[in-house]
């Protein structure tokens, strides 16, 4: 899977590298308790407003 | 006067104003120390006067900066082989502002390759080494900035902080480092790593010195699309009697090395003695927020380096190449969802962790500093765990985008610095610096010098 993702982006990967990368990449897919309550309208740019609101 | 290089930036500026010292005195004092220390710590990658002397609040003060702040006609290697000898065609906003304040730029400082490493290792330019003990890491990625300020080779230095790169070298080298709010200091003309996280900040000998440098570099710049228009109010002399500082004592006792826990909790008591009120709170979920930070950092860094990763992979160190490879395996939807969650986590930090407090106190690094051998190319199976430990308490701050100040609060049994970290609300750099200044008026950890 990792090998295919990198190949699709034109990034070569040496044999055996995908297996070594997998644990680190998988560890980043964590369960987030705030995810369920996230409003549909929120996007990445909302953060700029949050910075000002929380100063 | 004894060695002028041992003065703080604030004291050196005052000595210049009162004509007790000349800019040439300061420059020669720094050069004498560089001659003595450079072979031992490899903090500089080039020593040359890169600008012209000018009048101003920092007039004649020798500084040097991480080798990623561009200056027209000068080389910025970015700690890399790929950009070795690359000549910039514009000057970074931060350097322009320091130039306008009169600071001298006396060279460029070592750094982790493309600012993408937390230890200070660099296989292209040589490792930067810790002035307190060259066998130990300096922290990175602003390794030369931390080492040069600690060894009193310059009065201050710029660094960048994407996941801890100002605070880690400040902590490991025993100096004071300010990670600014995202948007507070223009990134125009500074090498990018991760645009949602990158910040620029000073490393110096004290909170008061960081305040002088921040005052020079902060402010809106239309060339950086996320540059803030928030006014900057520093005022480090403000009393901290009304200040409330949150901390999680039980978490620190359970998770930090006993020497580090004792030093940081001792610092909390010193802040209380200086007038602040301490509030016990539940800690943020450091590990969850660090994972989110890594998703953003890896995805954005890999996008930034995509073309070189297709064409010049062999010119990266193996460690940086591995980090960049990982970024290409992060799904776009995961990356964007983590960014969507960022506002909610900032609100949560503000309302729950800080609550009614002004600052949150936590160690900068909770574990004993590893050696260069343990965390370098020949590091063993423990290396990933050691690297994760080093960065555990810094990345979450970048994900939230808030400011944080790392400052020394003790030494361990190996004679290496221990540092605390004060974390504030967005744009509360003045509050952080006032608390740090009050602490440094009551203690002398920041005045200690590495052994000659």
Q: What oligomeric state do these chains adopt?
A: heterodimer
Low-confidence stretches of chain A: none
Put simply, the count of helices of chain A is 3
Roughly what percent helix of chain A? 40-55%
**Relative helix content of chain B:** 25-40%
Q: Which whole number gives the mean pLDDT of chain A?
A: 94
The total number of structural domains of chain B is 1
The biggest sheet of chain A amounts to: none
**C-alpha end-to-end distance of chain A:** 42 Å
Largest Cβ-defined interface: A-B, 35 and 44 residues
Describe the structure.
Chain A has 55 residues and is an all-alpha fold. Helix content of chain A is 47%, strand content 0%. Chain A has one domain (2-53). Chain A has helices spanning 2-8, 17-27, 46-53. Chain B contains 17 helices and eleven strands. The mean pLDDT of chain B is 97. In chain B, strand 10 (404-411) and strand 11 form a beta hairpin. Chain B has helices spanning 9-17, 23-41, 93-100, 143-150, 167-173, 207-217, 249-255, 258-273, 286-304, 306-311, 318-327, 332-340, 342-354, 372-375, 383-391, 395-400, 429-442, and strands at residues 44-47, 62-66, 104-109, 156-161, 176-179, 199-204, 244-247, 277-280, 359-363, 404-411, 417-424. Chain B has one domain (8-286, 340-447): Amidase signature (AS) enzymes (Alpha-Beta Complex). Chain B is globular and about 50 Å long. Chain B has an eight-stranded mixed beta sheet with strand order 4-6-5-10-11-9-7-8, with helices on both faces. A three-stranded mixed beta sheet of chain B has the order 1-3-2.
């Amino acid at each position: 899977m990792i090998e295919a993702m990198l190949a699709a982006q034109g990034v070569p990967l040496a044999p055996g590298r995908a297996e070594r990368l997998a644990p680190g990449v998988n560890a980043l897919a964590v369960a987030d308790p705030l995810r369920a309550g996230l409003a549909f309208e929120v996007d990445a740019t909302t953060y700029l407003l949050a910075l000002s609101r929380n100063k | 006067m004894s060695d002028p290089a041992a003065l703080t930036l604030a004291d050196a500026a005052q000595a210049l104003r009162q004509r007790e010292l000349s800019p040439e005195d300061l420059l020669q004092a720094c050069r004498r120390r560089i001659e003595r220390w450079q072979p031992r710590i490899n903090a500089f990658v080039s020593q040359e006067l890169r600008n012209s002397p000018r009048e101003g609040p920092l007039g004649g003060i020798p500084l040097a900066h991480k080798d990623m702040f561009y200056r027209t006609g000068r080389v910025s290697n970015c700690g890399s082989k790929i950009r070795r000898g690359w000549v910039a065609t514009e000057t970074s906003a931060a350097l322009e502002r320091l130039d306008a304040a009169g600071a001298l730029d006396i060279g460029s400082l070592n750094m982790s390759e493309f600012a993408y490493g937390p230890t200070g290792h660099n296989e292209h330019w040589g490792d930067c080494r810790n002035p307190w003990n060259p066998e130990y890491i300096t922290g990175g990625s602003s390794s030369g900035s931390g080492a040069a300020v600690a060894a009193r080779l310059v009065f201050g230095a710029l660094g960048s902080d994407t996941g801890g790169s100002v605070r880690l070298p400040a902590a490991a080298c025993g100096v004071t480092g300010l990670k600014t709010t995202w948007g507070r200091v223009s990134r125009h003309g500074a090498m990018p790593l991760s645009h949602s996280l990158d910040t620029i900040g000073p490393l110096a000998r004290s909170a008061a010195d960081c305040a002088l440098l921040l005052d020079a570099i902060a402010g809106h710049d239309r060339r950086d699309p996320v540059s803030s228009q928030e006014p900057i109010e520093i005022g480090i002399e403000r009393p901290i009697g009304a200040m409330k500082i949150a901390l999680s004592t039980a978490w620190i006792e359970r998770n930090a090395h006993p020497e580090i826990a004792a030093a940081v909790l001792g610092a909390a008591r010193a802040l209380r003695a200086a007038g602040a009120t301490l509030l016990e709170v539940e800690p943020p979920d450091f590990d969850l927020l660090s994972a989110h930070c890594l998703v953003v950092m890896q995805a954005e860094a890999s996008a930034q380096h995509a073309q070189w990763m297709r064409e010049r992979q062999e010119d990266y160190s193996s460690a940086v190449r591995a980090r960049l490879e990982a970024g290409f395996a992060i799904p776009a939807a995961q990356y964007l969802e983590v960014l969507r969650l960022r506002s909610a986590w900032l609100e949560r930090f503000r309302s729950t962790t800080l609550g009614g407090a002004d600052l949150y106190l936590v160690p900068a690094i909770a574990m004993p500093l590893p050696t260069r051998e343990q965390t370098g190319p020949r590091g063993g199976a423990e290396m990933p765990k050691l690297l994760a430990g080093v960065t555990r308490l810094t990345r979450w701050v970048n994900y939230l985008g808030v400011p944080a100040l790392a400052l020394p609060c003790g030494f361990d049994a190996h004679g290496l610095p221990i540092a605390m970290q004060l974390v504030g609300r967005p744009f509360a750099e003045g509050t952080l610096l006032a608390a740090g200044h009050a602490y440094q008026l009551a203690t002398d950890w920041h005045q200690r010098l590495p052994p000659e």
